[in-house]
């Protein structure tokens, strides 16, 4: 998986940071998933190397404007492009009504399938939001001023590495049959031999996992959702010194995000959703926030717009 940050500011954009949006690219299936869609997200796509034509799913954490105001424009542009095969939207209960109201009052027509899925019940019951051939998505309710949800994307375990040399030694001809065997399936050769793919593959390899958590004050539910994840993307709206303000507004500090990562045992933490007050020249900067977090969880980065990270290994 490849994660690209398209917006890393909270509340309002700045010269260097747009509001919330994170893209998840799935190269093995030529798909792009989007988490939140703040105002101007489609412009951020144009400034990136991502292909918006590959967009298939959009996950919305909550209905605050800095997370959804870019959604109607993006969906409308996809319709005008005429190349969209359909979009699945996941989010809070008001998401469908919001989009229908904007589309109706702006006389916007969407010429492709647009399917909306409410995640409230899945969060409450602990059931999957999505389960397809190789990926699952779960969510949990966070603690914020409006209903908000964190999402976890898990790649299912993959077959072990295929032993090409052993296959050649068995006289198995290269070609499409190798793909079948690599997937662990049994194949009948032209000479009548039945070859079990699993016998030519090493132990199954665990898939990778990404958790996206914003907006919330420190949440035990977020810790549970992020348990053992490869990457935790967590909001860090405020510095540790402004913990009282963070609690009052139900946002996280740098140290709350780090504590979540530490308790969950994740491999890497990336801070995002930074208040515009933390810019160069001010008493506190993003470097100070990441330093606070690293005092608790050393494997911490601070996101910036267009930062891309690879999660997991290919092959």
UniProtKB/TrEMBL annotation:
Domain Metallo-beta-lactamase: 18-273
Essential cofactor(s): Zn(2+)
The organism's place on the tree of life at top rank: Bacteria
This enzyme's EC code(s): 3.1.26.11
InterPro entries hit by this protein: Metallo-B-lactamas, RibonucZ/Hydroxyglut_hydro, RNase_Z/BN
CDD domains named in the record: RNaseZ_ZiPD-like_MBL-fold
Keywords from the UniProt entry: Endonuclease, Hydrolase, Metal-binding, Nuclease, tRNA processing, Zinc
EC top class, as a word: hydrolase
Catalytic residues (positions): 66
Function description: Zinc phosphodiesterase, which displays some tRNA 3'-processing endonuclease activity. Probably involved in tRNA maturation, by removing a 3'-trailer from precursor tRNA.
Self-association state and partner proteins as the record states: Homodimer.
Organism: Aphanothece cf. minutissima CCALA 015
Residues engaged in binding Zn(2+) 1: 62, 64, 144, 215
Reactions catalysed: Endonucleolytic cleavage of RNA, removing extra 3' nucleotides from tRNA precursor, generating 3' termini of tRNAs. A 3'-hydroxy group is left at the tRNA terminus and a 5'-phosphoryl group is left at the trailer molecule
Cofactor note: Binds 2 Zn(2+) ions.
Binding locations of Zn(2+) 2: 66-67, 215, 273
Name of protein: Ribonuclease Z
Family: Belongs to the RNase Z family.
Pfam families to which the protein is assigned, alphabetical: Anti-Pycsar_Apyc1
């Amino acid at each position: 998986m490849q994660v690209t940050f398209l917006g890393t500011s909270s509340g309002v954009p700045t010269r260097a940071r747009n509001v919330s949006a994170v893209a998840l690219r799935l190269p093995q299936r030529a798909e792009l998933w989007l988490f939140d869609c703040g105002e101007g997200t489609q412009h951020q796509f144009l400034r990136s190397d991502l292909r918006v034509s590959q967009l298939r799913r959009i996950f919305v954490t909550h209905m605050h404007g800095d997370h959804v105001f870019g959604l109607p424009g993006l969906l409308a542009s996809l319709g005008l492009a005429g190349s969209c095969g359909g979009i699945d939207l996941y989010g809070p209960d008001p998401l469908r009504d919001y989009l229908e109201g904007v589309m109706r009052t702006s006389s916007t027509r969407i010429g492709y399938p647009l399917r909306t899925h409410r995640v409230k019940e899945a969060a409450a019951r602990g059931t999957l939001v999505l389960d397809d051939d190789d990926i699952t998505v779960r969510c949990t309710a966070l603690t914020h001023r409006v209903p908000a949800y964190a999402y976890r994307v898990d790649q299912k375990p993959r077959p072990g590495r295929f032993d090409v040399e052993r296959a050649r030694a068995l006289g198995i001809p290269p070609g499409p049959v190798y793909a079948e065997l690599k997937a662990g399936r049994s194949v009948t050769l032209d000479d009548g031999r039945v070859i079990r793919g699993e016998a030519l593959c090493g132990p199954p390899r665990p898939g990778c996992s990404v958790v996206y958590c914003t907006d919330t004050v420190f949440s035990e539910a977020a810790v549970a959702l992020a348990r053992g994840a490869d990457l935790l993307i967590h909001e860090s709206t405020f510095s540790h010194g402004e913990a009282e303000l963070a609690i009052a507004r139900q946002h996280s500090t740098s140290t709350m995000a780090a504590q979540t990562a530490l308790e969950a045992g994740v491999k890497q933490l990336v801070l995002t959703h930074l208040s515009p007050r933390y810019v160069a020249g001010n008493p506190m900067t993003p470097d100070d926030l990441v330093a606070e977090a690293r005092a608790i969880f050393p494997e911490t980065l601070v996101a910036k717009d267009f930062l891309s990270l690879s999660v997991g290994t290919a092959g």
